[in-house]
Amino acid sequence: MGGYRYKTMNKKLVLFDIDGTIVSYKEKTFIPHLTLETIDLLKKKGHIVAIASGRSLCTAKVIMNELNIHNAILHNGAQIIINNKSVFEKKINKDIATNFCRILSETKLCVFAFDGEKIYAHNMTDESKQFLEEQAKQTNYIKPLKENTNSLFCINIYGEPSQIPITFADYNNLIFNDSLCELSVKGFSKGTALLTLSEELNVNIQDTIAVGDGLNDIDLLKASKIGIAVGNACDELKKIADMVTIDIEDGGIYEAFLALKLI
After folding, report:
1. Distance CA 104, CA 106 (A)
2. Is the pTM of this model over 0.90?
3. Is residue 36 in some structural domain?
4. Does residue 5 lie in a domain region?
């Protein structure tokens, strides 16, 4: 990687989670107007704004395009996008991923597998299908799990752990996160990705700010200089955050950056 340097002059690298941070699901799905204004003002002030999400590029790019954001941490740190190009990827080996998908497709578990471009699903509800299609603004990118033959960023498995017919502990380089129900390559998180992204963008880690709401944001907030938990965040995140905002629907993100004198 390289060639993506910015002259920051103490400008900040600001990272936002998507679901529950940028996007509100309170009563309806929307981005609060003060959140939109905050992101726009940060960019106008010369700060670098990036996404840090568990989402795949296929479901994140609509929001990235809407907000005119070109840098992102995706799949909870397994992929880094700079200037709309994937510059870092950690995937589950193709042969292992293909075998896992074959085995899991014969179970009653609900499974989603992500290669970055497509989603491979098994026992998906109609509600989940509708949500994913709405987020990606397309309908032809969800395929049956058993059709996957690619390496994968992650596999999400929902159901009773005792029903999973694979012993993930036998695979030393993989880890199953119980709280996220997610199988991925071991050693990578939003926090590790932030360290890589800030280095590639020539931003000192002391000039980083992260905003999130979930358990998968804990490492991100810990790695950043200033960690902000939104008002609707889980208690575990609020406990380690430097700042806790009011609800995002009430302008929490705007008020936080106003208090930091960055907008």
Report:
1. 5
2. yes
3. yes
4. no
